[in-house]
Design goal:
By secondary structure, the protein is an alpha+beta fold. It has one domain. Helix content is 33%, strand content 23%. The chain contains 5 helices and 5 strands; from the N terminus they run E-H-H-E-E-E-E-H-H-H. The protein has a 5-stranded mixed beta sheet. Helix 4 runs antiparallel to helix 5. The longest helix is centred in the N-terminal third of the chain and has 11 residues, at 16-26. The protein is globular, with a radius of gyration of 13 Å.
């Protein structure tokens, strides 16, 4: 169950495009991609909403890597890596991420993956 400030989007409809991008960008096995993506979407933090098309960007983690899911209504349209999403942040009403990015990522990771996320964020893979 997600904690305060987090949302569970694991029940959304996943498009074929979203699953293909997840496999391509995050190295997931095609057979288990749907389950892995749903698991990542169970703990997300909403980054913002695009007022022109009502799409929502949600930040999640998959194996310590930052994932941004683009959702519209109850459908996951695509999955982006952080470097792909960062130039588009302003489209979702966000000029920048909150100051405490590391804390935000640790909370998404939960207790078991916090150290892995710290290492990943320090290597430049995470936001910030």
């Amino acid at each position: 169950m997600p904690s305060a400030g987090q949302r569970d989007y694991s029940g959304v409809r996943l498009t074929r495009h979203a699953l293909e991008r997840f496999v391509e960008r995050f190295g997931a096995e095609p057979e288990g991609a749907e389950g892995d993506l749903r698991l990542a979407l169970a703990r997300t933090r909403r980054l913002g909403r695009n007022p022109s098309n009502e799409a929502v960007a949600a930040l999640a983690l998959h194996r310590g890597k930052v994932l941004v899911a683009i959702l519209n209504a109850s459908t996951c349209l695509t999955v982006l890596t952080w470097p792909q999403f960062e130039p588009r942040m302003a489209e979702f009403g966000r000029p920048a991420l909150p100051r405490k990015r590391g804390r935000m990522l640790r909370r998404l990771a939960g207790p078991g993956l916090a150290a892995e996320v710290e290492a990943e964020a320090g290597a430049g893979e995470g936001p910030g």
